[in-house]
Amino acid sequence: MISNNNLKIFGKFFRCFKDMVHKNWLYKVIFISLIGLQILSAAHLQKHKFALERGDNLIIERVNDLLSEYFNAYISGPDGKKDWILQPENNAGIKIKDYLVQEDSFIFGGYTYSNKFRVLNPFLLKMDKSGEIEWKKKYISQNIEVPNKIYRLQNEGYLMVGYSTEIQGKEYSQVHSNVFVQRCNSKGEKIWFKKIGNDNINQEGIVSRELNTSDLIIVGKGGNSTLELIKLNSNGKLVWHKKHRTDNILEEIDLIVNNNIIVKSKIKNKKEKDGNALSTYVLKLSQYGNILNENYSQEFHLARKEGKKQDDSDYGIITHSDVRVRRRPSTTALVLGVVTKNDSVKVLNRSEKKYQISNMNNYWYELKIDSSRGWVYGNFIEFEKPKG
């Protein structure tokens, strides 16, 4: 629902752009974009409240706007009056990208932006549980540097992971972005800064984990479909940098570190007509960055029923190892998981016609595996009837 305040803003936009909209298509695009920005920025996905020692509440709101995801943070007194803890300064704005809740304090990380100089500089801020700001550090550069995540390290101090884009020339032209990693001490003072990447694609750090050895694992994206896999030692020296191309569009990326390194990502298949369908991709690495295994989670519930109905009594045995299960009866359809040799499956549906794949000509079959569904090519199934 649009508030009265937003309606007033829309009115101002309309009066300012009314004449120009009829004269130039570019203004139409700008006008529509600004309206969309107002609508999207009003959508708070999450709101967290923390009681402060002095009786006020710290409110942290997670927000999506047209360009990115960020947080608003303010202190709300007993009268409901808002006291913003991060105020714009020197003609610059501030956006919070991540925060940490510690035993006796809060840590906020984000960036400041200047309309005049067109640069984005990262910052860290520490606030105690009474709502008082202990320190705020801004890391000045002449480039665009945006942290996506911040972490507290084992031996005190903090880590920032994100992207860095160099600005060149008087026209502020931008080159491709690289992964940036910055380590700070417990007072927010910068210890080292590392920029990684040199390909002609945009690269950014998404997530990081600290090993027991104090080495750091960073995982990010190169473009939409390449995983950037990085290991640094505690001093910021590069141990290895691996790239792993996928056939899918990477969405959410998570990282689990134990004896091995496990990267999990929500994915979209580039060739799928239904571009909103998500599955989960899992990549397993050794501590040396060698790929041990890659797989897809068995999220078969997205599969559609198609084709001719089979007899419910039909069962089958998978005859090959690591057979891909797809969302539709097509080799370009989203891979939902795998079945392996000697798996028992129930056959639900059959495609209406046979499909030629290399020198094979067979039907696709929709299978039920436990409580999930998916399509498998017929050459990998041996049919049988259930006993009894």
Instruction: Kindly estimate the percentage of residues that lie in beta strands according to DSSP.
Output: over 45%
**Total number of helical segments?**
2
Low-confidence stretches: 1-10, 17-23, 39-44, 298-313
Helix/strand-derived category reads: mainly beta
What is the CATH topology assignment of the domain at 300-384? SH3 type barrels
What is the residue-mean pLDDT, rounded to a whole number? 79
Helix proportion range: under 10%
Task: Specify the CATH architecture of the domain at 300-384.
Answer: Roll
Count of beta strands = 32
Question: How far from one another are the termini?
Answer: 60 Å
What composes the largest sheet? Answer: 6 strands, antiparallel
Rg (C-alpha, Å): 26 Å
* Dominant shape: elongated
CATH secondary-structure class of the domain at 300-384: Mainly Beta
